[in-house]
UniProtKB/TrEMBL annotation:
The protein, known as: IS30 family transposase
InterPro entries, alphabetized: Integrase_cat-core, IS30-like_HTH, RNaseH-like_sf, RNaseH_sf, Transposase-Integrase, Transposase_IS30-like
Pfam families: HTH_38, rve
Organism whose genome encodes this protein: Microvirga tunisiensis
NCBIfam families from the UniProt entry: transpos_IS30
Keyword Translocase applies: no
Amino acid sequence: MTLPYTHLTLAERREIYRLRSAQFPVPVIAQRLGRHPSTIYREISRNWMHDEEPLYRGYFHVAADMQARARRQRLGKLSRHPALAVHVIDCLKAAWSPEQIAGRLRVSGALVRISHETIYRFVYGPQGQHLGLYKELPMARRRRRTRYQRKPRGLFIPASNTIEQRPPEIATRTSFGHWEGDLMMFRRELGQHNLTSLVERQSRYTILTRNRDRNSAGVMSGMMEKLQALPAPARQSITFDRGTEFSSYRLLKHKLGIDSYFCKPQAPWQKGTVENTNGRVRRFLSRDADIAALSEETLLDICERLNETPRKCLGYRTPAEVLMSSLDPGLPGLSNPDQRSPGKPWVRGYP
């Protein structure tokens, strides 16, 4: 029967210090104390003093006993080390993440090190809640989510809608009417409003629509409202990433007959056209823009500015010209936006 484990006493630590000073090996020290060698190795490693001054660097029985007692207290490490807590709070206010703080302490050779989990527990503990430290975190959540709470993305995507099943003429841009879609997010402090960006792959024609939040049904409704003004050949398919805001993609098929395809996990480059377009939109709408206060007129002006800019990849024609020539093959491309074909479903922002 194994005897119950007992913590090392101050007398035993004094003996370890004496024997180590006499350069006795650890197995001999363990045999004299009646302890397992691993116990002695752990004791020396855990309570070793890492001081810059060589004279105060090493294993000392009194300091080791104090450190061991402090670890057994129910207080957290940041509560036991006020100076370290102040340092963590300063770093959080400087927009450092807990992982960055913990990693920096580790590589800088600090005497006391902590993990990012310790920082999160401090932030969401009584002291951190009193100071409102959650506001300094990257996501600024008032309450911490349970670990593994977030569901994996893409569970709603059947195999028939993955990008591998997309017809090859879409990838080569030889077919017209195939779009890419993405969601553009802005600063959380300004509300939940966001933009859906849609880009036709062949013409690079851009459509922007505003959403109140990331609710999938609302996002899809905004897309359908814009796309239904186009003829059926101009809206054949859309490629999305695996965000849950696109989980209601079946509405596009049911209402407008549009097929939906989804990128592989962690592969937004597979819809690189819309990713590139988002960068162009950011020239006019930075992340600090208040989308809720943005007028529809301004949004349409941005779309027209993008669609009337010549593109090298289009032979320096504009996306509006290429889209019009695709809708009506008899037209080589319009240089004057007032040359609109009669009977076309023209609304501002569409050719």
